[in-house]
Write a structure and sequence with these properties.
By secondary structure, the protein is an alpha/beta fold. The model has no long low-confidence stretch (mean pLDDT about 95). Helix 1 crosses helix 7 and helix 3 packs across helix 4. The chain has a single domain, classed as Rossmann fold, CATH 3.40.50. An 8-stranded mixed beta sheet has the order 1-2-4-3-5-6-7-8, with helices on both faces. The protein contains 7 helices and 8 strands, in the order E-E-E-H-E-H-E-H-E-H-E-H-H-E-H. The longest helix has 18 residues.
């Protein structure tokens, strides 16, 4: 399948290729979904999967390609390595990036949606939840983080495993907005392998031994602190039966969330 693509150049970061698919007619009801790839960086394949999922839906799909040579740590928003070493080049940090891109594509394609939906799988799911936490005012309607390898907990662990000593300002307002977001944490019931793709650093191992454990622990911990502190909490947690580490299969569950909510 030949995919459409444009290159976003009007920012201080490296040029960003964005694969996209538009509905036959764009009108005032056309919705926007951003699709964030995993560590394989196959944004084109992710878009193809979602073209199938969004067949006959009035949605515009956008899949940015964070090239390994330019954004080696996109999963932490380019703020740190997966072993917790903070990256000092703040001009490459990706918090607020999707909202900046959203403004651009609305102008480029004549889209009217005031909010967007966002889906990420694996490293893309890491991107999604950290993006919501560290961005100023993300214009997100529904966010889905599927099969993340590890998380940034709202605890006293050093960033990126927790929120101590973050490279950007994080305050109570950031945390409260994060918790109020319509964020769906999805995990496949069979995503239990421990292979070379699973972060085995000390900080990640404290979250659980595999993706399934870490997803459960992340949601349960976050839910517990919201209850203890009487905070608004709008997240959902879903175990997808019989699915391992598969973007294609997880995207089916995600599509039901996006399209059944309309």
């Amino acid at each position: 399948m030949k995919l459409d693509k444009f290159t976003y150049k009007t920012w201080s970061k490296p040029n960003l290729d964005v694969y996209y698919h538009l509905p036959d007619v764009i009108d005032e009801d056309t919705e926007v979904i951003f699709i964030i790839h995993g560590n394989s960086r196959n944004a084109d394949n992710y878009l193809e999967t979602w073209i199938d999922r969004a067949d006959d839906k009035n949605v515009a799909l956008f899949a940015p390609h964070f090239k390994r040579s330019q954004f080696p740590s996109f999963n932490t928003l380019q703020m740190s390595t997966s072993k917790g070493v903070i990256r000092e080049n703040r001009t490459l940090y990706l918090n607020n990036s999707i909202d900046e891109l959203f403004v651009h594509i609305k102008s480029l394609f004549g889209l009217n949606d005031k909010k967007y939906n966002i889906y990420g799988h694996s490293a893309g799911a890491q991107f999604v939840h950290r993006y919501l936490l560290t961005s100023d005012s993300p214009a997100v309607d529904i966010a889905i983080a599927a099969n993340a390898g590890w998380y940034t907990f709202l605890n006293g662990a050093n960033f990126p495993y927790g929120i101590k000593n973050p490279p950007v300002s994080l305050n109570d307002s950031n945390v409260k907005k994060f918790l109020k977001t319509n964020l769906h944490i999805l995990i496949g019931s069979k995503d239990t392998d421990v292979d070379s793709s699973v972060n085995q650093s000390e900080g990640a191992q404290k979250q659980g031994f595999n993706r399934f454990q870490r997803a459960n622990n992340f949601f349960e911990y976050t839910e517990s602190i919201t209850q203890q502190n009487n905070l608004e909490f709008n997240w959902e947690f879903q175990i997808v039966p019989g699915v391992a580490h598969s973007n294609s299969k997880m995207s089916r569950a995600a599509a039901l969330i996006f399209f059944d909510s309309n």
